Amino acid sequence: MAVISERFDSLGADGVPAKLGLMGGTFDPIHNGHLRVAEEMREALELDAVLFIPTGAPVFKRDQNVTDPEVRFANVRAAVAGNPHFDVSRIEIDREGDTFTVDTLRQLREHYPENVEFYFIVGSDTAATVGKWKGREEIAQLAHLAVAVGRPGSADADTLREAVMAAGPFQLHLVRVSILEISSTDIRERLAQGKSVRYLVPWDNGGRARCPIVSMGHLALPPLSHPDPLSKAFFNARKAELEKRVSAKRFQHSLGVSDTCAQLAKEYGLDVKKARLAGLLHDWDKGYDDDQARARVRELHMEDEIDPYIVEQMPGVLHGITAARALGQEFPDIPADILQAISRHTTAAVDMSPLDMALYIADAIEPNRQFGRIDELRAAVGKETLEELYFQTYEYWVFLLFERRKPLHPDTIAIWNAYTAQHPRKGKRGNGDGSVSGKKHKGKK
Ligand code: ATP
Ligand code: MG
Questions:
Q1: Is there a cis peptide before residue 169, judged by omega within 30 degrees of 0?
Q2: Domain ranges of the chain
Q3: Taking burial as the number of CB atoms within 10 A of a residue's CB, which of 262, 264, 363, 379 is the most buried?
Q4: Ligand 2 centroid, distance to 394 Cα (angstroms)
């Protein structure tokens, strides 16, 4: 169970200095002003992550009729889901009684190691009230104060700086952000009058509803639209991200696997779009070195699901498993069978689905791979059944592992035995080097 947030609970656990932005607010409802402030702060102050913390019972809004915390939370969560640097925390919602920032900061300080620095982000209107904050001296000790200046109707930068410094020994950052004249109050008023709030909030009336309608009490907000994960737009957006996540060579390989997997799908009657996306995303986490791959397992809270021996001794196989989990969290609409294929592409499994097999084969035979028996496998596409082709590929990879004196994954024998039981070799005999044809090949070292 996450304590602070799903994504960032273990921020700083690796001992590396990290900066965590904290964006508190009532978020009644969250709007594009909040999101843009957080994004610009992240860039300006080089924050590793920004945590949105919806208030439970906001002290300054006691007299107002504030929307149910769970509804506000659900909206914030949906709004930040698409940004890997953002997440939402329940800590204020789950705390009994009035919400005070100082309590939140204490709780965060207890949770995170010293190498994580906090940046408490506020708009200039909120900063102007600093003189009234409970525990402001302590807040100044616990966090930097990052003030977004430019919000209309607020004091100028000098006046603000004076007010803040009079209130406590703050480490103050005044950051000029794009002025988005948006407030939750204005949005509530527009909704009450039946007016449009399109482009003010991260929901789109015209988009296809792919997530449950999160209704703001009596005001029905249009649902957030999620792009269809099998659309061209989604593919292209992930492709652009992948290019930044992995090396140029790995990126080319991923495109090759995507095309090859789609061809295999066409040949064997599978869903071509799914195959194409699975191929593109299979090495999503391949940009990490061994230690980073292990850290990724911790970040995703997968320690209990993966054999510690594998994490320690075979970090090279982790990227498929972590990619599937991370992608599933970031893009909940990606079909489960695609995630399964990604998860299994490194080690395979005894009960591979056709899509699992297609991805496994495509990873081995895409055009950028040039070694050993690959041409023979390529030539067998369409001639052999998908299962037979998969098993030949598997056989070849296991052979290479032996030849390269690599450790075998503990599941490898079970997979091998399951397939040899079902698919005994008829007629042909091997050449003693993993190949079955007349030609002899040597595996690339
Ligand atoms: P309300 O009108 O209900 O007070 P709000 O739009 O001010 O809502 P809050 O949830 O009160 O939203 O704000 C959370 C934080 O975000 C505050 O620190 C606020 O100053 C800041 N903030 C909100 N909207 C903007 C904006 N458009 N530009 C800059 N900062 C903003
Ligand atoms: Mg406000």
A1: no
A2: 18-186, 232-422
A3: 264
A4: 59
Q: Alpha carbon of 28 to those of 98, 146, 180: distances in Å? A: 17, 22, 17
Task: State how far the Cα of 136 lies from the Cα of 152, in Å rounded to an integer.
Answer: 25
Bridge partner residues of 53 (DSSP): 24
Most ligand 1 atoms within 8 A of CB, residue of 30, 32, 34 to mutate: 34
Question: 257 C-alpha vs ligand 1 centroid, how far in Å?
Answer: 45
* Ligand 1: residue whose CA is nearest its atom 8: 184
Write out the two tokens for 425: 């070799």
Cβ–ligand 1 contact at 178 (below 6 Å): no
Q: Which atom of ligand 1 is nearest to the CA of 33?
A: 27
CA 311 to chain centre: 20
Q: Is the CB of 37 under 6 A from ligand 1?
A: yes
The number of residues in the chain equals: 445
Name the residue of 23, 28, 37, 179 whose CB sits within 8 Å of the most ligand 1 atoms, as the mutation to test its pocket. Answer: 37
Average pLDDT, the chain: 87
Could you give the CA distance from residue 442 to residue 445 in angstroms, rounded to a whole number?
9
pLDDT digits (tens, 9 = 90+) for 349-387: 999 999 999 999 999 999 999 877 899 999 999 999 999
Residue 22 alpha carbon to ligand 1 centre in Å: 13
Q: What is the pLDDT of residues 77-135, one digit of tens each?
A: 888 988 999 999 999 999 877 889 999 999 999 999 999 999 999 999 999 999 999 99
| CATH code of the region 232-422 | 1.10.3210.10
* C-beta pairs of 250-254 under 8 Å, 24+ apart in sequence: 250/283, 250/286, 250/287, 252/368, 253/283, 253/366, 253/368, 253/369, 254/279, 254/280, 254/281, 254/282, 254/283
- The CA dihedral of 294, 297, 301, 305, to the nearest 10 degrees, is -110
C-alpha 163/C-alpha 307 separation (Å) is 55
Calpha distance 355→372 (Å, rounded) = 24
Q: Which of 96-105, 186-195, 211-220, 229-238 has the lowest mean pLDDT?
A: 211-220
Element containing residue 310 per DSSP (H, E) = helix 308-313
CA dihedral 126, 132, 138, 141 (to 10 degrees): 40
pTM, 2 dp:
0.55
**Residue 39, ligand 1, Cβ within 6 A:** no
Domain range 18-186, CATH class: alpha beta
Whether ligand 1 lies within 6 angstroms of the CB of 72 is answered as no
User: Measured between alpha carbons, how far is 335 from 341 in angstroms, rounded to an integer?
Assistant: 10
